Amino acid sequence: DVVVVGSANVDLVVRVDRRPGRGETVLGSDLSTHPGGKGANQAVAAARLGARVALLGRVGADGHGRLLRESLERDKVDLGHLREAGAPTGVALITVGPEGDNSIIVSPGANARLEEQDVADAAGLLRSAPVVSLQLETPLPTVLAAARAAHRAVFNLSPPAPVPDELLALCDPLVVNEHEARMVLGAGGPPAEQARALLRLGPRSVVITLGAGGAVAADASGVTTIPSPRVEAVDTTGAGDAFTGALAWRLARGDGLADAVAFAVRVGAATVRGAGAQSSFPTLSEVEEP
Ligand code: ADP
């Protein structure tokens, strides 16, 4: 149903009372180690809902790479195009402060070695999928090549960075959160206005996620605001990735944009109810309407 082209990281998380200054050492909690990376998160989110998903990416020939493969296999993500790179598996070094605030250093490692050639080698796979889901934790030329090869590209412009008009024009939809929308447009504003402004940049459709506020969807037929179910938010990590993975799957199944977004906001809301990223992604029965 969905091919995800993107990143796979191991998240290494330590809780601290305060962060070290220059030249200083502080003691933190026990280390916790979690599978992550936006690409792997999107893939797992869709697969856990029942989608058939392949992840095109790179990991290192190391223990972290094995950990990622094992966790992706548990969620039945097809790893036929997850290659090894001559570099360590990507990691995110995360400290969590006393207020739950994150500071993160990402070492892209193998993710930075995902090349246009990897996309070319997977041409048959990409052609077979109605939707290809993309983010920006792998090199831009690779993302652009994948968008060109896709029947339909869902692109989460995250982490935000300047991208060529050609890539924007291939997005259907472009998916951003409010912060990313502001970065791309260089100005804030009401979500519906932001969505219209993003649409003028060329994508066929736009989705802005609004946290507890749900999401807005915009295409040539108009702008729709879709509220999120009210939930008690425990940890919002990975909510955007779960949203995008779910959205990609529903679009691949033939849903219209507003219906797919209405489903994806339920998946996002379910995700924030639990701690961690992939560990809190729901199964289909957990988000189906009663
Ligand atoms: P990101 O994780 O990229 O910052 P958002 O915070 O906008 O993205 O969240 C993505 C989606 O997750 C939202 O569209 C919504 O469906 C859901 N979500 C996030 N936070 C909450 C919340 N506090 N309550 C309910 N749903 C939420």
UniProtKB/TrEMBL annotation:
It comes from the Bacteria. Keywords: ATP-binding, Carbohydrate metabolism, Cytoplasm, Kinase, Magnesium, Metal-binding, Nucleotide-binding, Potassium, Transferase. GO terms for biological process: D-ribose catabolic process. K(+) binds at D235, T237, T271, G274, G276, S280. Its EC number is 2.7.1.15. The active site is at D241 (proton acceptor). Pathway: Carbohydrate metabolism; D-ribose degradation; D-ribose 5-phosphate from beta-D-ribopyranose: step 2/2. It holds the Pfam family PfkB. ATP binds at N177, T209, L210, G211, A212, G213, G214, G240, D241. Belongs to the carbohydrate kinase pfkB family. Homodimer. This is Ribokinase. The lineage of its organism: Bacteria, Bacillati, Actinomycetota, Actinomycetes, Streptosporangiales. The gene is rbsK.
